[in-house]
Amino acid sequence: MSDIRIATAEDQILLDKEAKYCSYGDTVHYIEPPRIFSRCEGSYVWDTEDQAYLDLQMWYSAVNFGYANPRLNNALKQQIDTLPQIASQYLHKGKIELSEMIAVDAKQKFGLDGRVHFNVGGSQSIEDSLKVVRNATNGKSLMFAFEGGYHGRTLGASSITSSYRYRRRYGHFGERAQFIPFPYHFRGPKGMTKEEYGSHCVQQFARLFETEYNGVWDPKVGQSEYAAFYVEPIQGTGGYVIPPMNFYRELKHVLDQHGILMVSDEIQMGFYRTGKLWSIEHFDVQPDVIVFGKALTNGLNPLGGIWAREELINPKIFPPGSTHSTFASNPLGTAVGLEMFKMTNEVDYGAMVMAKGKYFLEGLQDLQKRFPIIGDVDGLGLALRCEICGPDGFTPDKATLDYMVEEGMKGDMVVDGQKLGLILDVGGYYKNVITLAPSLEISYPEIDLGLKLLEQLLVRATKR
User: Fold this and answer.
1) Structural domain boundaries enclosing 318
2) DSSP character at residue 35
3) How many separate domains does the chain show?
4) Alpha carbon distance 412, 409 (integer Å)
5) In this structure, are 45 and 176 located in the same domain?
6) Which of 300, 323, 345 is the last residue of a domain?
7) In this structure, what are the phi and psi dihedrals at residue 413, rounded to the nearest 5 degrees?
C-alpha cells in the first residue's frame, strides 16, 4: 500500500482557491487531498497527473451511457450550431418529439394517457410533481415516503427525503412526510423469505387505514389525509436496496383502495439502469406520476421532468403558468434526450444491460464467498450493491468501506501491468454499502477489471 498522496503544487494552488472562494454547501471531500480531474472517456476519468481511474458510479448514475459518448456528444454539438437557445414560452421540435416519445412509451407499457412536463433537474422535477399532486388532491400537503428514501434537497424534496439532516436547519416548507419501512430484507426480521417480508411490510402499512384512530383515514367520508406515496422502486442513496417483486403490486392495491397516488422517482434508476427504461416496470404496477432526470441527457445538459396521467396534468386541471423554469425543455437537453432514445431503441438495450448485470453480480457473489466482510450483494440490471460488514458478515462497517474508498482513490493498484485507481460510491442506511452504477456501455473486460480492483481493495481492508 502506498503512503498518503500529496497534491501537486499546481493542484494545491487550486485547492487553496477552492477553500477560500467556493461554497461548501454542495461539496463533500471524501478523500484528502481531493482529486482534481482533467478529462474523461467511456468508463474512465483522469486526474491532473494523468492517472486513470475506473469509475463504477458514473456521476451518481447521471452518465449511464459512458463519459464523452461520441453519439450523444455529437447530438449536442449539432444542436449548438442550429438552435442552441430559445425561451421556454416558445415551441421547438425537440420538446414536442421528446414528450411524444415518453408519453407514447408510457401508453404502451401502462395503458395510460399522459403528458410530459420538463424542468432542469431531478429535485426541481420533484417540486413540480408535488404541485401536480397537491393540485389534484385539493391541496393536500402530506405524503408517504420510505425510510431510506432520497428525493432531493430543495425545500419540498427534502421534506419527503428520510434524512433529517437535510432539513434540520431549514424546517419544513409545505410538505410533510410519514416515513414507512422499506422491505430491506437483509436487515429485516429473520425467518421470512424476501416475498413474505414484502407482504409483511405492506400489511403493516395497510393497518394505518383500519380505523380513524390510526390517524390517516376518515372511514365516514372515505378520504385519506395523505395525497401520494413517493417511491424509489430501487432505493438509491439508501443503498440500492431491491425489494421483492410482489411488493409494489400489493402496495399499489392498498393505495388505490384509499385514493392515494403513487409517484415513481426514477431520477437515479431510470433510463435503463435496471435493464428497463423505468425501474417501476419490473413490478407490474401503473404509476400515476413518473419523475426523471440525470441520465436523460447523459449528464451533458441539465434536463429532468415528469410524466403524469392525463387526469392529473391536462390543461384544464394544470393550466399554463402552473409552474415554470427559464431553462425547462431547453433545446440542447431535448436534442440529447431524443438521441439517447433513438440510440437505445436500435438494439435490445435492456437485454444487454441485464446480461452485463448478471455477469457483474456473479462476480460479486464470488467475492462474497471469499471475503466474509461482504454481508450482502444484490443487483437488478447494472444497479448493484455490495454491503461491507464486520467479521460476522452483518454488523455495518462504515470505517472499512471508507478505507476502501480512500485506497481506491490513491491510483496505485496494478492489474496486468496497468496502474489504476477505482472510483466507488458510498450509500446505505449505515453508509456501509458500495453502490455500483457502472456505465451501461461498460465492456465485459472492464467488468472483470472492476472485480479485480475490488478484490485488491478487499485484500487491503482485511490485512490492514
Assistant:
1) 75-345
2) P
3) 2
4) 8
5) no
6) 345
7) -85, 150
Same domain, yes or no, for 200 and 249? yes
456 Rama sector, left if φ>0, alpha if ψ -120 to 50, beta otherwise: alpha
Q: Is residue 120 part of a domain?
A: yes
Q: Provide the CATH number for the domain around residue 31.
A: 3.90.1150.10
Q: What is the CATH number of the domain that holds 293?
A: 3.40.640.10
DSSP structure class, residue 294: G
- Phi first, then psi, for residue 289 (nearest 5°) are -140, 140
What averages of pLDDT result for each successive group of 10 residues across the chain (464 residues)? 76 95 85 92 97 97 98 98 93 97 98 97 96 96 97 93 90 84 97 98 97 95 97 98 98 98 98 98 98 97 96 97 93 98 98 98 98 98 98 98 97 97 98 98 98 98 94
Is the domain of 258 the same as that of 278?
A: yes
Its sign, for the CA torsion 242, 243, 246, 250, is negative
DSSP strand E in 176-297: where? 176-180, 217-218, 223-224, 226-231, 261-265, 289-292
- The three three-digit cell numbers of residue 212, written as one number: 380513524
Q: What is the pLDDT of residue 3?
A: 62
- Determine, yes or no, domain membership for 166: yes
Q: What are phi and psi of 35, to 5 degrees?
A: -80, 145
The DSSP string of 164-208 is GGGTTTT--SS-EEEEE----GGGS-TT--HHHHHHHHHHHHHGG
pLDDT at residue 175, rounded to an integer: 75
pLDDT of residue 432: 98
